[in-house]
Write the structure tokens for this entry.
Amino acid sequence: MVVNPKLPVKDVKEFIALAKSKPGQLSFGSGSSSSRVAGEMFKQLTGTYILNIPYKSNPPAVTDLLSGQIDMMITDMATGLPQVKAGKLKALGVSTKQRSPLAPDVPTLEEAGVKGYKMTYWFAAYVPAGTPADVVGKLNEMLVTAARSSGAAGFYQSTGTEIFTSTPTELGNFQAAESLKWGRIIKAAGIEPE
């Protein structure tokens, strides 16, 4: 969660108080479905009304955040952290369950007072339904080995990505839980399919 440094807040609690004192006057940018749902979840958990400004991607939203056209954004580390390190944006929180090793002084949103906030992006590999179990098992083994390799670990660490691997069954359970979570947020926000 990043804000323009000119916004008169030093932490998440102050941002929430400001948003509650000015309903609909603060805005957040979203350049992906993930950043939109992350912002909507923040609004729902804090009881705030913050106007969503949609963008075609996250970098143009960050550009408008830098210029003060929007007030806040929940974006990926690769897009937001360089601006924070350059002093151009202020980081108020991270959306993960634990603090990021790339920004250890930035609290999680839950630590900062937004109870129940955890929003991460994830990706997985899939095969067509009906693929033989031994093929699925072998592909899973290969992907887990690749994801845990030193080359991949170095890349993931540099982007603030946490590596977590699972079995195909665990992935199915995780995906079902994520679909329910995102579905609840999307429905509560009144987001229409595009």
User: Anything to note?
Assistant: Helices lie at 12-21, 33-46, 58-67, 77-85, 133-147, 150-158, 168-189. The beta strands are 2-3, 27-30, 51-54, 72-73, 90-91. DSSP finds seven helices and five strands in the chain. The first helix runs from residue 12 to 21.
